[in-house]
Amino acid sequence: MSKVIISSLYDSDEFKMACRQFDQAADAINLPEEIRDRTKYPRRCVAFALPIKRDDGSVTVFEGYRVQHNLSTGPSKGGIRFHQHVSIGEVSALAMWMSWKCSLVGLPYGGAKGGVIVNPDHLSEKELERLSRRYMQELLPFIGPDVDVPAPDMGTNEKVMGWMMDTYSNHVGHIVPGIVTGKPISLGGSQGRREATGAGVAHLVKRYLEDMKISVNKATVAIQGFGNVGSETALALANYGAKIIAISDWTGGIYNAKGIDVQKAVKYVQYQRVLKDFDGGEAISNEDLLTLKCTVLVPAALQRVITPGIAAKLQCKLLAEAANGPTTNQADKVLDKRGDIEVIPDVLCNAGGVIVSYFEWLQNRANYYWERDEVMTKLFKILDKAKDSVEAQKRKFKFSRRLAAQTLGIERVASAKQSRGLFP
Ligand code: NAD
């Protein structure tokens, strides 16, 4: 028997949600008691005070975290989020999901996640650079290309990864491109990494629509979140012939039954930073976007946006979880009961990002760089294989697709821990 003695450190809606999912999956596969808690709880976490000088000469101290959930199957891997609502509980749930995701798609990584409580829109470019560098500086004793490898998440991007890589490299005295992924191409970033998550989401949507006998060029799509993942998903699906009828960001949404010009929206956001006042359709609220009648709904922003109330009102046929943790446990039950909506669960749906991050890390280590076509072909091959394994697990045990994906991810991590044994 194992006994867990855990403080309330990680206590949060997200962590409880990830733990409930874990418990359900562990029960479903009869995971032995002695391995459960070791597999479930984060291996370690670090909290930092991050003082930075503001442009006006004052100093602000931000709080940041890094949670390394699992280091048993390789270096831990996961993004860094800059958002005003970050908490250590949220970061640990996201780290847990990274563990199952990496394991599900067969990457030699554990899961991790980082975050800073900050609204990056309230920082100047120089302040953002100082904060990014300070974060990496504080992380130095706990990180390395064989220990923990960060990547972008909400509120961070290629530029931030470039500054972090530079900070680490200056510390060790030589360039170490493999310390982070999602870097600019000029610093050892991979072809295709920027669009990888969205391209992966779009690829899986196309594959699932085929299974549902719906032609992608007859599909209508609503996407919440128009950052890296949301915009790249929109571009890729529009490229496949789907009609993007709604998009949104934190300022609100745009609806156009005739289809939104996604390229134009991307250009608009490049200059204006937000979708507000984009003239490609009529205004729509984020909540109304979620419950629009459409073929595919893609939440690509925050977690826990699909509540039981929203789940009951959804009018899509396919829910593609590009965001991490967009559907609450209770909402999941509503969807299971309804039975009329196919769900591509987050750990599968958005895995394209970490897969191409893995490719980037491999290229950095080999100092040998691949063409974009090679990256995309290999990405889709891994996603297809993961999809097939999820579908087989779903059929074999009559699981929901989320349970199938999570049990596969959890099983492999638990098995690695069991094989390694408990030291000392
Ligand atoms: P991003 O910062 O590039 O974009 C986030 C978008 O969400 C922005 O358009 C923002 O305005 C919008 N948003 C924020 N709060 C919102 C709200 N309350 N309502 C509606 N929209 C809101 O972030 P991203 O990298 O695109 O990440 C989006 C999601 O995808 C996150 O859940 C992230 O964890 C997940 N994800 C990202 C990657 C990646 O490679 N970047 C990989 C896997 C999963």
3D structure, described in words:
By secondary structure, the protein is an alpha/beta fold. It folds into two domains: 8-178, Leucine Dehydrogenase, chain A, domain 1 (Rossmann fold); 196-349, Rossmann fold, CATH 3.40.50.720. The chain has 15 helices and twelve strands. It has helices at residues 13-28, 33-40, 88-104, 125-139, 158-172, 193-211, 228-239, 262-272, 286-290, 308-313, 329-338, 346-349, 352-366, 372-397, 401-420, and strands at 44-53, 59-68, 76-83, 110-117, 148-152, 220-224, 243-249, 252-255, 282-284, 296-299, 318-320, 342-344. The strands form two sheets. The protein has a seven-stranded mixed sheet with strand order 9-8-7-6-10-11-12. The chain has a five-stranded mixed sheet with strand order 1-2-4-3-5. Strand 6 (220-224), helix 7 and strand 7 (243-249) form a beta-alpha-beta unit. Helix 14 (372-397) packs across helix 15 (401-420). The model has no long low-confidence stretch (mean pLDDT 97). Nicotinamide-adenine-dinucleotide binds next to helix 7 and strand 7.
Number of strands: 12
Find the structural class using helix and strand composition. alpha/beta
Gyration radius (Cα, Å) is: 21 Å
Spatial strand arrangement across the major sheet: 9-8-7-6-10-11-12
Give the low-pLDDT segments: none
Helical content band: 40-55%
Strand content: 15-25%
CATH architecture of the largest domain: 3-Layer(aba) Sandwich
Provide the CATH topology of the largest domain.
Rossmann fold
Oligomer: single chain
What's the order of the H and E elements? HHEEEHEHEHHEHEEHEHEHEHEHHHH
